[in-house]
Design brief:
This protein is of the alpha/beta class. It is built from 6 helices and 5 strands, in the order αβαβαααβββα. The chain has a 5-stranded mixed β-sheet, sandwiched between helices. The longest helix has 25 residues. The protein is globular and about 45 Å long. The relative contact order is 0.18.
Length: about 170
Amino acid sequence: MNEITLRIRDLLKSSGNRLVLVESCTSGWVASQFGMIPGISEYFCGSLVVYRNDSKHQWLEVDQAILDDPRIGPVSHRVTTELAVSVLKKTPEATIAAAITGHLGPGAPSTQDGNIFVSIAYRTVSSIESVTTVLRQLKAPCPQHDLDISARFIRQQEAGDFLLTVLEGILSSK
């Protein structure tokens, strides 16, 4: 279990918030960290893994034209924000949503390799607001080939830890 998840659980508990996640590049790793905490269902509503563009479009209604647009695409500020806002709309019991997208490699375009986006959205009494979307370049080296699973997993963990760090910062400031 990741220690930051315990701190986030405590922040969710003390603030009365409930969390829902949308994970793409981390493929459910963050949700699995929360799932190891007994009683987390009081504060964690669940997670969607939307790895493919069609899932992002069909499940969370991200505009297909945006996903297909080479200037925007699925790993972008805009799509990550839309994922967070959409899952929050579809999860009425949640008060905060976190979404993550990224290019972990191998085979990512060189200008986008290692880029991850994290978006946090929160529910107010009258609306849903996006708090922040953050871009980060991963430090872990790119996997060298399709079977370089350990390098890819290290990148997934780094991306997941970054999502957790952003989420903890937002919850701490509320």
